[in-house]
Amino acid sequence: MKIAVISCIHGNYEALNVVLSDIDNQKADKIYCLGDLVGYGPHPNAVVEMIRALDIPTCQGCWDEDIVEGLNACECSYPSLLAEKRGKLAHEWTNQTIHPEGREYLAQLPLSLRDNNLCFVHGSPHNQHEYLMPEVDAFVAMERVLATGADILFCGHTHVPYVRSLDAGQLQIRLKLTDKSEKDMRFSAPLKRIVNAGSVGEPRHGRPNATYVIYDVDTDQITLREVEYDYQKTCAAIVENGLPPIFAWRLARGLEFAERADDPTHVCER
User: Fold this and answer.
1) Residue 83 near residue 259, CB atoms below 8 Å
2) 241 in any annotated domain
3) Which of 4, 54, 131, 171 has the smallest set of CB atoms within 10 Å of its CB?
4) How many CB atoms within 10 Å of residue 53?
């Protein structure tokens, strides 16, 4: 059995269509979506309607939460105050554009999904806004997977695809007991993996191609798929809809940010 995992579509209907066709060609039996159906891109309603129509099990992403909750910031952090301003403009545009039924759908999405020994989240099991970067501390990475009780944790949010294996080993923890004494405990952790599906609609791996993951349950093989599509069509729609043109610029290049941070310490306030 093959499972396809997609994430971070961000209103990019062109990319979603092509990826779904590629998934069909790969003969996947199931599809899971890790959220962020909206934000940045020009076709939030078409994306939401497609995911709903296909009844694809989907986690709630950080942008999905922002639109539901009416939050005034769309990312966990910005590289600059200018980027924050653009993010708010995109949030306001999406908030005004999304259909009521689409907003209701985003509101009821779960934070995580399970399929036997597999767990699916947007950012991390603790928060859809947490980035699990490929270089995250090994203990932190292992804790995030163990917290789910799964063997493989599928996530998105970073827009950069990767597979990280956490080799079996010995873990030691120290517990503080109610009588103020301490107790050391050791236990073995079997092989765990974190798989990032990248992004269908706004890749940040240096190319405009959409990315997603195929997991073969029978062979335990993980394949990172990269699919070309007509990204220029989405870029044109971004500009035509009045979204910040820099979104089109970075989509065409597969880049995260278009400028150096004016204030790299700035974090958006919720």
Assistant:
1) yes
2) yes
3) 54
4) 8
Residues across the chain: 270
- Please give the single-letter amino acid code of residue 269: E
In a domain, 114, yes or no: yes
- pLDDT tens profile 200-232: 999 999 999 999 999 999 999 999 999 999 999
Residue 65's domain comprises 2-253
CA distance linking residue 92 with residue 259, whole number of Å: 22
Say if 178 falls within a structural domain: yes
Which residue has 């399970």 as its token pair? 114
Give per-residue pLDDT as tens, 144-180. Answer: 888 898 999 999 999 999 999 887 555 555 566 666 6
Block residue for tokens 């653009």: 86
What pLDDT score was predicted for residue 87?
80
Q: What is the pLDDT of residue 89?
A: 87
List, for the chain, all residue ranges whose pLDDT scores fall below the cut of 70. 70-80, 168-180, 183-190, 257-270
Comparing CA positions, the residue from 1, 8, 56 lying closest to residue 156 is 8
Cα separation, 243 vs 247, whole angstroms = 8
Q: Is residue 188 part of a domain?
A: yes
How far from chain centre, in Å, is Cα 178?
40
Neighbouring residues of 56: CB distance < 8 A, sequence distance ≥ 6: 31, 32, 33
Residues 131, 137: Cα–Cα separation, whole Å: 12
pLDDT for the residue 141: 83
Q: Domain with 192 in it: what CATH number?
A: 3.60.21.10
